[in-house]
């Protein structure tokens, strides 16, 4: 019998809704809290997330809620709000979480200003709750439709990561456990920025050879950054690093990739959440602070900030001195 009977999911966007159903599929009782009251009430009434994950019914074991008190008594909490709202959401949850209840960030990003990863925000806001991270190649729609996926769940205490992984796994969702929380988070945050760049390259029509070069060189940046910040090489080479970069930087289903495609085509992005657009500045600042060279991420940041045009970004990247491949 798992000790994680009741799971709270905070954030009923696409990923929170998919994870709530996944936890139900794993045999858990789930409370799905949503910040937007109108949206929460629609979920309570209709039991379908028409706005963020249309066509997917909530599992019977999932109870949607507008009131944060509903998370009381949970045995673990999945934090599935956009990265820039993680701190406020954790603060809202704090009075309702018992000591030692693990809190698992499922968001992919770095907080602007503080340059904090999600686990650092959770540790600062919920110091008595172990901060964990869940990340990997997993489109919400795929997971919600029961297509197979594999992700990594990390906690400083690997026994806890293994227990949580077992509690959330099902025949179609494999969770690998790890003790490398920062390594897992780095992959999720950095790949979104690189994926926007890959989307821009695709939108401009640079071709598939350039697309592959972009992923390989983007991954070199991700690994350099990851190892400077203490991520383990096997994590960066794994699901949450290479795995998620390949998925996000090649698929039109990705919001970050599509955001880049729109920019590359000179069109306006569709307004869906593209976490990389919020994280680019923080990623580049953190890289500079740690003396890590990230030319692709920097070019993406500069294009998003309007400092340079897409053509100038391409010219600058192609004109870099020829070096060894590392
Ligand atoms: N959609 C996907 O396939 C996946 C998403 N993720 C990550 O999960 C996180 C959430 O993304 P999605 O669920 O896709 O987002 P979404 O765009 O589907 O939904 C956004 C959610 O954020 C909530 N929200 C908006 N403003 C808020 C605020 N001020 N405070 C608290 N909540 C607020 C909305 O009410 C909604 O629940 C992101 O970091 C994303 O990178 C990770 C893996 C897969
Ligand atoms: O993180 C994701 C897949 O692993 C989702 O990617 P997007 O946010 O770019 O859609």
Automatic annotation (TrEMBL):
Q: In which pathway does it act?
A: Membrane lipid metabolism; glycerophospholipid metabolism
- Residues where substrate binds: 108, 255-256
**What GO molecular functions are on record for this protein?**
glycerol-3-phosphate dehydrogenase [NAD(P)+] activity; NAD binding
Q: Which Gene3D superfamilies match?
A: N-(1-d-carboxylethyl)-l-norvaline Dehydrogenase, domain 2 (1.10.1040.10), NAD(P)-binding Rossmann-like Domain (3.40.50.720)
- A biological process from GO: glycerol-3-phosphate biosynthetic process
InterPro entries, sorted: 6-PGluconate_DH-like_C_sf, 6PGD_dom2, G3P_DH_NAD-dep, G3P_DH_NAD-dep_C, G3P_DH_NAD-dep_N, NAD(P)-bd_dom_sf
The residues the record assigns to binding sn-glycerol 3-phosphate are 108, 136, 138, 191, 244, 254-256
Q: Which reaction(s) does its UniProt entry say it catalyses? A: sn-glycerol 3-phosphate + NAD(+) = dihydroxyacetone phosphate + NADH + H(+); sn-glycerol 3-phosphate + NADP(+) = dihydroxyacetone phosphate + NADPH + H(+)
Query: This chain belongs to which protein, by name?
Result: Glycerol-3-phosphate dehydrogenase [NAD(P)+]
Q: To which species is this protein native?
A: Terrihabitans soli
Q: Per UniProt, what is the name of the gene that codes for the protein in this document?
A: gpsA
